[in-house]
Amino acid sequence: xxxFPRISVNKLGEYMNATVSRRRQxxxxxxxxxxxxxxxYAPAQxxxxxxxxxxxxxxxxxxxxxxxxxxSAGNDYKGxxxxxxxxxxxxxxxxxxxxxxxxxxxxxxxxxxxxDYLGVTVSVRPNLLIRDxxxxxxxxxxxxxxxxxxxxxxxxxxYVALMMRLFLEEELGLKNINGKMCIVLDIHxxxxxxxxxxxxxxxxxxxxxxxxxxARWETI
Length: 220
Prior knowledge:
The chain is α/β, with parallel strands linked by helices. It is built from eight helices and eight strands.
């Protein structure tokens, strides 16, 4: 059990557009997290990271997909993990021919992965960082969303991308962040969104949501 209020950034994105009952369930799941569910897409995350930072070619990604498909037989936990990750890689290969990233994609080597937001610890954990190809300064980040059953939609993705921007600017103190390069990939939904230019109202929405999570934490 998590004693103090906390939420992952992707779940916060889902929370923003959720019904009252779903919001309650999200808080409950964050307070009593399942370690098994969190690891469901670990093989896919590792494979996509290697591909996007240039360690793998597309043929390597295809081979990893094929291997996971072969290893997904059976209904045990390992088979389910391999099946979920195979599906995610397949969706990525079918949906993302061009990401439109200006800069160098690198592994996320942040020493800090969370930020305190109105008393709620938000686990941002960018999957990748984007650096300026000339100065090597961080100018953005990439976040994967793998859940097939809970797509974020345009609105949810916008909130997640904005939260990443706030994390880079306010928590890490980086000065040259490009909102267009704060990118969310909703893998199964085929959605790619960047942090919106005008975000004052969305930031107010995030403020209200985190204040609500903080207030409801002890009651759930």
